[in-house]
Each structure stands twice: as structure tokens, then as C-alpha cells.
Amino acid sequence: MTPRRLRLAPVLSTLALLLATLGAQPARAGLFDDEEARRQIRDTSFKVNDRIDALSKGQIDLVNQIVALREENARLHGQVETLTFELESAKKRQQDFYIDLDTRLRKLEPQAPSASSEAKPAEDGGGQAAEASPKPAGDPAAESREYESALNLFKANKIKEAGAAFAAFVKAHPDSTLAPSAQYWLGNAHYSLRDCKKAIDAHRVVVSKWPQHAKAPDALINVATCQQELGDDKGAKTTLNAVVIKYPGSPAAETAKQRLKK
Length: 262
Prior knowledge:
The protein is mostly helical. Among the domains are: 37-90; 142-262, Alpha Horseshoe (Serine Threonine Protein Phosphatase 5, Tetratricopeptide repeat), CATH 1.25.40.10. The chain has eight helices and two strands. Helix 4 (179-192) packs parallel to helix 6 (216-229) and helix 7 packs antiparallel against helix 8 (251-261). The longest helix is centred in the first third of the chain and has 106 residues, at 3-108. The radius of gyration is 49 Å and the shape is rod-shaped. Mean pLDDT is 77; it is low at 111-135.
């Protein structure tokens, strides 16, 4: 080997090594790019799985909440049905109590004459009638049958028919001893039909026309109840105070006092 070639050998070796190094850079870069892509895919996959897990857990929680709400709704529905039944039963017991009380009170009320009879005309001189015959009195037995018929309709929960029957009774027999009671039950019929305004008007007739009747204090209590349901708390309070003042010592007055304390 010549001296010149010996001098070029290290240079050629260095050049070859440099070229080999430059040629390996793209392959190594490609290898690094693939590894980074795989890492990103793995990270994205983990994130997607975590998101799916979170959504699945949220859906399960939502389903559990829906089931719990349905169970709570069913429980509350059952309670409403129970309370409705108890309320209807209480109303029925109260209705039966008042009807029984009404029957007892009517036995204590004075009765009208049993039948009407024509008055004998007083003769004056030539035998002419000096006075006209008085107006015939009502038939207590017939009135009692009409009243009982209306009351039985109310007891059978035929409220609309009962109200019409009581209204007809009061119109036909305004002077009957049963008229105050019929007017009172007319007010109760209106209240049962959820017409508080007509109920108030009917009960006020009892108080104004027959203020000393046994049902007058209860009629005022019913007026106060209707006023409260209509949102007239001030009017209800005034009515309850009137019960206490007008009918002291009565059961209605005690009821009024208790309600005024609330």
C-alpha cells in the first residue's frame, strides 16, 4: 500500500461511519414516532374506558334513583288512598252523628196541631158567618214524611237530590217546625257539593230567621268553616267570635273557642 493510500484510509473510515450514522437517523425517528403513536392510542383508550365506566355508573345511579322515586311515589299514593278513606269514613260518621242528633232534637221540639179543622162560623142574627175560616194548619205527619225522605237521601249520599228536597220543603212549609232543620241541611248539602257560597247563604238564613233554634249555633260554625275554605280568615274569625258571644255555654261555642286558639 502506498503512503498516500495509508493517509486516506482514516478519512475514508470516518466518512463511512458518518454516512452510516446519517442513514440510521430516519429509521430511528420512525421507530420513535410509532412508539409515541402507540402510547397516545393506549392513553386515549384508557380515557375512553374511564369515560364509559363513569357513564355506566351514572346510568346505574340514575336507574336506582328512578326506582327509588317510583317506590316513594307508590308509598305516598298508598298513604293518600288511606287518608282519603279515613276522611270519607270520618265524614260519614259525622254525617250519621248529625242525623242521629237531628232525630233526637226533633223529638224535643214542639209539634204543630195534628190536623186542620174547619172553624165553625159564628152566627150573627140572620145566621150569616161573621168571620172567614182561618188558614188551615199544615199536616205534621205529612211534613215529617217529607223531611225524613229528604234526610234519607242525604244519608244515602244522594246529596244533590237531598238538597233539592230540602229546598222544596222550606219553600212549601216555611212555617213548619221542621223548616229550620230543613234549611240547615240544605246548607250542609251545598257544602257537600263544594259550593261554599250557597252553603253560607243557606246557613245564614237559619241564624237570621230562627236565631233561637238549636241548629243556629252549628249553622254559624258551618259558616266559619266555609269562610276559611274560601280564604276569608278574617271573616271566619268574626263568625267564630259571634258564636261565642251569641251562644255562650253551647257546644258550638266551645268548638269556636278551640278554633280561635289555632
